[in-house]
Design a protein that fits this description.
heterodimer, A: alpha/beta, Rossmann fold, 2 domains, 29% strand, elongated
Chain lengths: 311, 352
Amino acid sequence: MGEVVVSLDGVVRRFGKLVAVQDLSLEVGAGEIFGLLGPNGAGKTTVINLITGLLRRDGGQVRVLGFDPQTQARQVRRQIGLVPQDTNVYGDLSAMDNLWHHAALYCDDLDAAGGRIEELLRLMALWDRRNDPLRTYSGGMKRRLALARALLHDPHIILFDEPTLGVDVQGRHVLWEHMKTLKSRGKTFIVSTNDMNEASVLCDRLVIIDHGKAIALDTPEALRASLGRDIITLHTAPEIADPESLFDGLDVQEVARPEPGWLRIETKNAEARVGEFVSRVSTQHRLESLRIARPTLDDVFLHHTGRALRE
Amino acid sequence: MKRFFLLLLHEFRLVRSTLPIHIVAVIEPAVMYALMTVILVHPTFDVYIRQSDDNATQALVAAMEEVGSPIGLPYINPVLVDLDEPRNVRQVIVVEDRDSIPTAVQRYNLIDQNLVKNYRNRLTAAALRLWDDELDGYAVTVEEYPSGPRDIPYNVYFGMAMLPMATFLAASMLGGVLTAQEFERGTVMEQRLASASPELILAARLTRLAITALLGTGLVLLATGLINSYWPTSLVLVGLILLPVAIMGGCLGVIVGLVARTTLPAFLVGLVTSFVGWLVGDAFKPAVSVGGWYEFFSRLTPNTYAVELLFPRFYGTEMGSAATAALVLTVAAFGMLALTALVYRRIIYMRA
């Protein structure tokens, strides 16, 4: 991690009796894509709003490039661009009109705004549609325009709440590529998402949040590896009645029955030891299906919270 | 300055997303004025009299032609018709010989008592002229002293009194709807983190509202002028008088939009306050001529003070204190501006 550009230290935020963010601490380095991963209602958007200064914190410290968003709002606003969860645009106006309005609100140098607008629209592959009303844009195009808008005043840090919400598969990949391109140009992203695939593909590091608390923080690979186990999923006939006895001595960490006839076994080094499992099963059962997988971030969440990410 | 004009340009672009409301706000008062001049106001200059060669009828017609208003314009236009009864006309006068006494018999169609009064007054005015001549010094002499130098149709007063309403209606209705839509659309989020000052953003919106409101008012003025062939002495002064009204309407609309955050209540508040302000504020006659509670409540509306300032531009004579009216409108406009800025900062920029 490079220079710290955003830091949260023991941050607390309450909404009445509900504690939306509890003692959250994290640091975001310059030029990385940092993820906030968690289910709906985990507190991700609240964290983003605390970083931007849209919400007042009830405890702890927040620093954005050294500035406090609560007491030094003007300095922070110049350094950040926000793409909120809802793509809020003027649908009857064109992309150019929307961006010029944003420039009037955000840009210090209005003389250079025209060139910047063209540069960003070309980067987002929207230049050919620049004069069309935004209500004719697809969801993905609107998200790209929202990203272009957030970049207009050349902020160092972009906060992107649910980047690909409502975007089709193809549009997602296009958007991810744009974000990686911008990252290569030195931009820092803070991305909130409940899509583990997006978090895995996009984020250099991420924090898993649940009920406002940080559950785990590291790179996606390290988080998956932290479970220290692989997943073997097998389907047998007849169903294995007592897997604990059958696999005794094979260092099984956990066994679950996701469906009738199916077993989900967590164990270490599954690829090296799958033969032993097959051998034990074959003595009394017919093996219908076998699959080996590395843990996903969903598994990481499940491991820490006992719930699936999308519950 | 460039930033202000960019924001102002954006404000005008928003017409595309609120075109029906713009049409209502800008055009409706002028249409309403035109319709109401047809429905409510009945000119009674034309007085129908049955054509006849007898001396009494000729004398009455001559007397009618001689009668003028106290400030110079013709008061009666005798129209000779071949009718004994008011068929397809509001009234008809028939001069009859009753026991050798010439009697002007006026018959009315289905008209209200106000119109009856008007026609009766005209017949009486003509008759007084005949009696004056006939009684040779022993007649009733009528002296009239108008307060104004010109005789102006009521339609003109009605149109003049509608100008502040049209201004306030357009500004408040559009201000409320445009502001509420920012919340409904979510575009208010852009303003929350903007570097541009909230006062500049507000200034652009209120400038646009004032321009649009004065455009709608211009249509009412145009309708008034074309229908009555009558124009105020200075269009620029009329615009300056109505500018604080536009600002107040726009401020009210923005405040309502910020608080309500949905279109329908913002629209309705603008509509209701405009119409109530109009009805209470000198809509049909100067409140000072009514007095009492009506005048008290009328003094709470900007319409009354605007009409007091507009009156000399149309009638050439003062009504009330122009200095007081100008001061009240100016102070009220600045007060509303300050309140709007306060509410705007509180709602847009205060952290939850």
